[in-house]
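Hey, sorry to bother you again with one of my protein questions. A protein chain has come my way and I'm curious about its shape. I'm sending you its amino acid sequence along with the backbone structure tokens. I owe you a coffee for this, so here goes:
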Amino acid sequence: VECATIFSALGWRIDEKRGEVRRTGRHRLHGHDAIIVDEASMVDQAMYEELMEQTENTDTPILWVGDPAQLPPVKENSSPVFDRVQTQVRLNTIVRQAEGNPIIQASQYLRDCIEKNRRPRISDITTIEGDGRLSIIRGGISVMADYLVDARSHGLDARAVAFHRRMEDRIGQIAASRFHPPGSPRMVEGDPITMSASYGKEISNGMEVTVTDRGETLHGYGPLEIDCQRVEVKVDGTHNMHSLIVPQDSHAHEVALRRVRQTRDRERRRSRELKNTEERTQAGIAADDAGILAQEITDTYASVRYTYASTAHKAQGSTYEVAIVHWDDILSAGNETASR
């Protein structure tokens, strides 16, 4: 069985600089007996149309597996899968959670609200009885960060969940400041981190990893001559281990890289605009030098961010021992969807 992300299967990738989707080569949809697409609720209009177009002249059946009550694609009200696929079967037997689990009752209540287009009320959820696995806490993002830090300090795999990226960032920043006060190592064992850029051939942008060991401190390391920390990480959901060189001061690293790239782009423009041949040549050399330095910086230092919090879209399908959900932020997203 061949497994791939839908982006990889379609021959797509995200341009890290422009934030755009680009085609990188041929798709991988031919030559299969069947295609199974999981998490179909996240398939947007462009993905659906591209996949259907690429398989239009084949006899390959497509099995869509998803839940219309789960999150829709980003910036869309629903996935076209549930509107355009004619044969649909609804599964009613719950096998993932133990019978009587309060999570099931809460999920069924929320599903009922979604299907009846009714706003869920937190007072209804508080009446669900259980064994302590479902709790309602009151307070803002600082309180969420407190619970998150407490859970992780007790060895639990905990994650805060919000709908908006800005809220995810704010909660994550508060938690990071408590785990890593000024003067402490930037990375410690157990830290959940996400790659902000590709690193080497095997670690891609957006990949989630966990720090398994904190290695030596490297002083004045690499082309920027900055203090760094060597860490060993494990790619989440796999047994793959990798070594990263992480700058101790992430801000200084990011600012330096941004300035080098700005120099490269500026000199490239000058090399195209200048009339004088010698000046144009010098600008081209300066652009090449800055480009080489930018690549060396990218290859040397790992660009990472803490993943104490996630957006609901990113967290969908994941399993955590403790999930701390920003209820108001989730509801505000529902209001935005309704207004669209």
Notes: Residues 250-273 form the longest helix (24 residues). Residues 147 and 324 are 8 Å apart (CA to CA).
